[in-house]
Amino acid sequence: MVCRYETFNSLDVTEYELPYTLETKVPIGSKLVFEKWEANDGKEYMAVELMYQSTAQLRQNAMLGLDDPPVIYPLSFEGIEKNDDGLYLFEDIDARFDEAINKYDEMVEEYSDDAIQEAA
User: Fold this and answer.
1) With the CA atoms of 57, 59, 60 and 61 taken in that order, what torsion angle do they form, in degrees rounded to the nearest 10?
2) What's 64's domain CATH number?
3) Domain span at residue 21?
4) What is the C-alpha to C-alpha distance for residues 8 and 75, in angstroms, rounded to an integer?
């Protein structure tokens, strides 16, 4: 997924400031990572994290690996609670994406060429 701060706003990601980088919102080459977990009781959970190279790693042209891993920053969402392990219920994250997609579809419909022509 392309990481843009506007994407995070539409998903109601809580305000944050990233460590170890000059770009405190969405660093160069960052990746949005979704980890899906299943508990013993069959419930599905998700971790949502932003993964990126630190400024020092970029300057040193460091090869990332187990000895020099990327920075991993867990994202939080307004109105959704994490469990004790820092994971969200999968259905809560899925619902958040559905809400954002529906809002986008409504905007496209409202601001379509036809709607703009009718307003003119």
Assistant:
1) 80
2) 3.40.50.1240
3) 5-119
4) 9
Q: Would you call 68 helix, strand, or coil by DSSP?
A: coil
Question: What is the per-residue burial (b if ≥16 Cβ within 10 Å, else e) of 37-72?
Answer: eeeeeeeebbbbbbbbbbeebeeeeeeeeeeeebbe
Contact 11, 77 (CB under 8 A): yes
Binned at pLDDT 50, 70 and 90, residue 116 comes out as low
> Which pLDDT tens digit goes with each residue over 68-92?
999 999 999 999 999 999 999 999 9
Q: Which two tokens stand for residue 80?
A: 């959704």
CA-nearest of 67, 99, 75 to 3 is 75
Number of domains the chain is built from: 1
Q: In the chain, what is the straight-line distance between the N-terminal and C-terminal CA atoms, in Å? A: 36
User: Token pair of 58, please?
Assistant: 């970029």
Cα separation, 78 vs 74, in Å, equals: 14
